[in-house]
Fold this protein.
Amino acid sequence: MTDADTALVLARAQFAFTVSFHFIFPSFSIGLASYLAVLEGLWLKTGRSEYLDLFRYWVKIFAVAFAMGVVSGIVMSYQFGTNWSVFSDKAGPVVGPLMAYEVLTAFFLEAGFLGVMLFGTAKVGKGLHFGATLMVAVGTFISAFWILSVNSWMQTPQGFTTNADGQFVPAGSWLPIIFNPSFPYRLVHTVIAAYLTTALAVGGVGAWHLLKGRATPQVRRMFSMAMWMAALVAPVQLLVGDQHGLNTLEHQPAKVMAMEGHYEDHPDGAPLVLFGIPDDEAATVHAAIEIPKLSSLILRHDPNAPLKGLKSLPKADRPPARIIFWSFRIMVGLGLLMIALGMWSLVARLAGRLYDWRWMHRLALALGPAGFVAVIAGWVTTEVGRQPWVIYGQLRTADAVSPIAAPGVGGSLIAFVLIYFSVFGAGSWYILRLMAAPPEPGEPDPRATPRMAAPQAAQRGEG
């Protein structure tokens, strides 16, 4: 490769690394903010103390995850100016205002009420505190709205024209840009994924404590709520994902060809390739295990419907199937395991053994991090599947990079890897430490200092 090619690869690797780290925390905090609002609302409605104990337990974890998400997002955004200045120049008139709306409408809302939610328990009334918690939950959703609108416009651009400088500018109304063809599907799919990520994390923590013999009312309650979420929402996600896939087939057929491992055209119905080894150079899937015509049935709802393959596209326009093929299967496979866990929990609930079936608890514990893996796999599928375009069909990734030298990008990438793993590794370790202790009656709220919390811990027999 030339120095320019190496710089491009390193710039893409740096952005992929930082976004992957960043995406982990919002995918957790979006769902956790809503979970906190539900817990506080149930406490206000029922007066049951275990809801307040769970709120105080999880709000501390939310604060750490939210902080790490903010910090990682700030670092990530600088790369638009350093490594992707051509993209920033050309797409700035569209992307810039949408990102600014996210700050003005979401980040300020979250920042304004986060302090009240975390430290205002004894300083404001119950209603105002609940309102602050709701505003933080709404803010996380609004943030997802704008970020996914920007990403979806890059996937399915519309409502724009180009000016004399070659920049993308709105053609008139902003509504076609914001509500582009893939945005509704991507928004619903991603937000549900965030809720499932949180449910599995909460369920995994509950399962851990149940396996340790800590079947307190608080542990039982959070495990039950998490299993309800998995049982009811995971099957819905399967249907939403199917509709999102059909939308992708319409607007980004090359991505679906790579996901399915279809290199050849299939005029009489395409098989579903379950597993195999994609080979982009040879344009084939080695050792493929296939189910005849099932891909056409899923994608076209007709087993004999024709489907195109990657060979129908110029080689320069094909995404790397060897990556997308497996990231898609990781996402779907984990989704099916989530559905299986939800169904198993329903059977256990009907049998009155939800807190007794240890093998189900072991599965719930094993799937605790599955939501994080699934959202990263889905992001890889979405973003790598868009290649070789950064704005689909309009601006190639190779033409969007800054005129930078490979050593500079490589040095900053190494620095990012070292700093991210140390800083965010420490933060994640602290979150795991918080999760390792079970929620207790009289759980202290975040405003309590260690000295203030000590007498409460002693009363619970912890000190």
